[in-house]
Structure formats: C-alpha cells, structure tokens
Design goal:
rod-shaped; mainly alpha; 167 residues; 2 strands; 5 helices; two-stranded parallel ribbon
C-alpha cells in the first residue's frame, strides 16, 4: 500500500511537471524584431532623415578639411618668405583651424547619435507595445526575440505584430 501511494505520488508529480512544461511551451512565442525594424515605414523614414543629416555634416566637414589643407599648403610655400612672427601666427591659426575641425566632427557625431535616439526610441516603444498587445491577445506569457534564439520552433507572431503596426 505504501509503495502504491509512493508510485502514485511520483506519477502525479511527473504528470504535473510535464503538464507545466507543455503549458510553458504553449504560452510562449517568438518575434523577429530585426525584421520588423528593417521593414517598418517609420524606421525607413528615420533612416532617411539620419542619412540626410549625416550627408550635410559630411559635406561641411569636407569643406572645412579642404580649406585647412589649402591654407597649410599656402603657408608652407610662403614660410621662407615671411617673418618668424607671421609664421608663428600662421602656425597658431592652423592649430586653431584643426581644433575647430575636430570639435565640429565630434559635435556632429554627438548630434547624429542624439537625433538617432530621438527618432528610434519612439519607434522601438511602439514596436514593444505592439508585441505586448499581440502577445496578450493571443494568450502568450513570454515573447522571445527570434535573434536571441538558437531554435525558434514555436509560434512566430512577427506577421501579427506588423499587421498591428499597420504594415
């Protein structure tokens, strides 16, 4: 009798444990966030804005560098024909120009990063909210990013999230 009770208890534990695993699998899905972000119209617009801004910064930077190089060549050619005082002033001017160029490049990078954050964060928030909405509507407790999975053999809600986002 005691052996049968033990066997019954073990069977109940195994059954309950197996049932929990089955339930956990049934209540999880995956989504390809990368695919959503790469095809989302709002993200494509944000990328265009960033490219346009980057191109403008690059053009300004290129002009500054060309002016710097032209001035350095001119000063080097004239170095033997002017006084030491003029050469000293020119040297200081070249150093100042170089510093302005470096500062401009650094500020442009910071501005691009800030603009990217300002554009992408609301998009990411929308995607996350949509994933949560779709997941809850379909009864999932866990939604995993497909990029982080070694095996994604369960339900894929990427299409549902895209539909919820309107594309």
């Amino acid at each position: 009798m005691m052996k049968q009770l033990k066997s019954l208890l073990i069977a109940a534990v195994v059954f309950a444990g197996g049932n929990q695993v089955a339930n956990a699998q049934a209540k999880s899905a995956h989504v390809d966030v990368s695919e959503i972000m790469q095809t989302m119209p709002a993200m494509l617009d944000a990328q265009k804005q960033l490219e346009k801004l980057s191109t403008a910064y690059d053009a300004d930077y290129k002009v500054m560098v060309e002016e710097f190089q032209t001035k350095v060549r001119k000063y080097e050619q004239e170095a033997t024909t002017v006084t030491d005082q003029v050469n000293g002033e020119r040297s200081q001017e070249v150093q100042d120009m170089q510093k302005r160029i470096v500062d401009y490049r650094d500020n442009a990078q910071k501005e691009l990063q800030k603009k990217e954050t300002d554009l992408v964060k609301p998009i990411m928030d929308r995607v996350k909210a949509s994933i949560e909405k779709v997941g809850k509507a379909k009864g999932y407790q866990y939604i995993f990013n497909a990029a982080d999975l070694l095996l994604a053999d369960g339900p894929n809600i990427t299409a549902d999230v895209k539909k919820d986002l309107g594309f």
